[in-house]
Amino acid sequence: MKIHVQSRSGKPLGTLTLPNDADVPALKAAYAKQTPSMYVDRQRFYLPAVGGAKPVALGDRATLAAAGVADGGTVVFKDLGPQISWKAVFVLEYLGPLLIFPAFLLGQRAIYGRVTPPGSVAAEHQVALALAWALHYAKREFETLCVHRFSHATMPLGNLAKNCGYYWGFAAAVAYFAMHPLYTPASDAAYISGLVTFYFMEAGNMWCHFKLRALRPAGSTVRRIPMGGPFSYVSCPNYTCEIGAWVAFNVACPTVWGWAFAACGAAQMAVWAAGKHRNYRKEFDGKDGRPLYPRSRKALIPFIW
Amino acid sequence: MARGRLARAYLLLYNAAACALWAAAAARLATAPGGLGGAYAAAAPPIRAAQTLALAEIVHAAVGLGGGSPPLVAVQVLGRNLVLFGVLGALPAVAATRVAGALLAVWTAVEVVRYPYYLGGLVGVVPGALTWARYSAFLPLYPAGMAAEVGCYVAALPAIDAGGLYRVALPNAANFAFDFGTFVRAALPLYLYFGPALYVHMLRQRRRKLAA
Ligand SMILES: NC(=O)c1ccc[n+]([C@@H]2O[C@H](COP(=O)([O-])OP(=O)(O)OC[C@H]3O[C@@H](n4cnc5c(N)ncnc54)[C@H](OP(=O)(O)O)[C@@H]3O)[C@@H](O)[C@H]2O)c1
C-alpha cells in the first residue's frame, strides 16, 4: 500500500510503498531509508488531526491498517530531535552523585578550609553517610549497565543536560551541608534506625529490579504482570522502596536539601507510578485471552493508593 | 470564557477592592510630604494591603479564574512582595530613599490603569483609551520599574550584609545555611535575562490587543 507522509505543518515529505500488513516499525524503517538523517529512534508518527482534536500518536505495536491508516492514507511525521542512548544518560547522570559525596568528604580542607574534628560523632557519621550515598549510585550504575532491560533505546539529547543538572545539583547541595565541618549529626537512635532502614529499602529496590528483568526475555520489549513479594500489594514497589530509602537517609542525615531532594523524587515517582498503574490495568483487562490485572493491587502505597 | 455567576461576582469584588486600594495609594503618593523620599511612609499601608490581596492572583491563575500562567503570575507577585515586605518593610532607611519612592510610584501608575481595565472587562465597558493606556503605559513604566527594583536591592545590600538580614548560620539541627546578601547578588543578574524577555512578550501582546 502507499502511504503519504507530511510534516506537522502539512508539508508533503514523500510517499512510501509498504506491504499491506505493515506495522509502525516497518513504516519507520521505510522512512529512515528514504530520509537517512531521520533514524528510527528520532521518528514519531501521528494520525492527521481531525478538527481541533489532539493528534493521536501511532504506537509501535499496531499494524497500520489496525491503527486506521488505509492504502493512500496520510500520516504526520514528527522529528523528536537528536537522540542519545538511554543507558548513556543514566550512566552520566548517576556518575555525578557517585563522585560528589566522597569528593566533599575527602576534599574538606580544600572546600571548607578545615575538617570535621577527628574522632567526633559527626566525623564518624559523615564517613558512613558518604558511603551510603555513593553505594546507592554505584548500585544504580550497576543496574543500568547489567540489570535493566529498557524498552526504549534512546531519548532526546536535551534530556541529558536536564537530568544531569537535577542529579548533580541536588547531590552538591546535599553533600555541601552533610559533609560540612560544622555538620550537626542526628541522634544515635535516628542515625542507626535510618541507616538500617536505608539498606533494607535498597535491597528491596534491587530485588524488584531483578524481578522486572526476569519478566522480559533478553532483547525483547515484552511487558508482563509482575507477581510475588511486594508486587502483590503495589504496581511499583521499586519506587516505594526508593522513596523509603530516601526518607530513611534523611532520618540518618538530616538536611533541608536532602528532604527537598526526597520530596522531588517522591513527587516524580508518584506521577510515574500512577501512569504505570493505569497502563497495567488498561493493558491487562482480562478480555480476549489477556490476563486480568489483580484488582486489589494499588499503585505505590500498599492498601492506600 | 464561560464563568459562573458566583465567580464573576467574586472577580468584580476582587478587582474593585484592588482599584480602591491603588487609587488610595495614588492619592497618598500625590500628597506625600517629602516627595519620593517620603513616599513609602505615606503610601505603604494601601500598597501593602493591595500586594497582600495580590497573592490571591496566584490562586486565580492556578484555578483558571484569571488569565496568565501560574508560574509567571507567582514570580511577579512574589518578586514584588519580596522587595516590598522583605526589603523595604525590614529596612526603614532603605524605604526612605528616593529609589524606593520611585518604585512605589511606578507600581501605582501601572495598577491604576490595569485594575480599572480588568473591572471594565468584567462589566463589559472598556473605553478605547483605557485599552490603549493598559497596553502602552508599560512602555516606559516597565523598564523604570525594573530599574527601581534593582536600585532598591543595590541600595539595601550594605544594610543586608551588615545586619545579617535573614541569615541562617551553621551549625544548626537542620544543617542549613542561608545568606540573603549572596542570594540577592545571585538573583540580580536574572533581571537582565528575564526583564527583556518579559518586555518582548508584552510588546507582542500590545501589538495583538491594539490591532483588534
Ligand atoms: N528521583 C529519583 O530518585 C528516582 C526517580 C526515578 C527512578 N529512580 C530509580 O531508578 C529506578 C529505575 O527507574 P525506572 O523508572 O526506569 O523504573 P521502571 O520503569 O519501574 O523499570 C525498571 C526496568 O524494568 C522494566 N519494566 C518495568 N515494568 C516492566 C514489566 N511489566 N515487564 C517487563 N519489564 C518491565 C523497565 O522497562 P521499560 O524501559 O519498558 O520501562 C525498566 O527497564 C527506580 O526503580 C528507582 O530506583 C529514582
Automatic annotation (TrEMBL), chain A:
The keyword Oxidoreductase applies. The chain crosses the membrane at residues 165-183, 255-274. GO terms for cellular component: membrane. Its main location: membrane. Keywords: Lipid biosynthesis, Lipid metabolism, Membrane, Oxidoreductase, Transmembrane, Transmembrane helix. GO terms for biological process: very long-chain fatty acid biosynthetic process. It is found in: Membrane. Pfam families: Steroid_dh. It is a multi-pass membrane protein. InterPro entries: 3-oxo-5_a-steroid_4-DH_C, SRD5A/TECR, Ubiquitin-like_dom. Residues 1-77 form the Ubiquitin-like domain. One of its GO terms (molecular function) is oxidoreductase activity, acting on the CH-CH group of donors. Gene3D superfamilies: 1.20.120.1630, Phosphatidylinositol 3-kinase Catalytic Subunit, Chain A, domain 1. Belongs to the steroid 5-alpha reductase family. This is Ubiquitin-like domain-containing protein. It comes from Porphyra umbilicalis.
UniProtKB/TrEMBL annotation, chain B:
Keywords: Fatty acid biosynthesis, Fatty acid metabolism, Lipid biosynthesis, Lipid metabolism, Lyase, Membrane, Signal, Transmembrane, Transmembrane helix. It is an enzyme of class 4 (lyase). It is a multi-pass membrane protein. One of its GO terms (biological process) is sphingolipid biosynthetic process. One of its GO terms (molecular function) is very-long-chain (3R)-3-hydroxyacyl-CoA dehydratase activity. Its EC number is 4.2.1.134. The chain crosses the membrane at residues 53-75, 82-109, 115-133, 140-160, 180-200. InterPro entries: Tyr_Pase-like_PTPLA. It is found in: Membrane. It holds the Pfam family PTPLA. Residues 1-27 form the signal peptide. One of its GO terms (cellular component) is endoplasmic reticulum membrane. Pathway: Lipid metabolism; fatty acid biosynthesis. Belongs to the very long-chain fatty acids dehydratase HACD family. This is very-long-chain (3R)-3-hydroxyacyl-CoA dehydratase. It comes from Porphyra umbilicalis (Purple laver). The lineage of its organism: Eukaryota, Rhodophyta, Bangiophyceae, Bangiales, Bangiaceae.
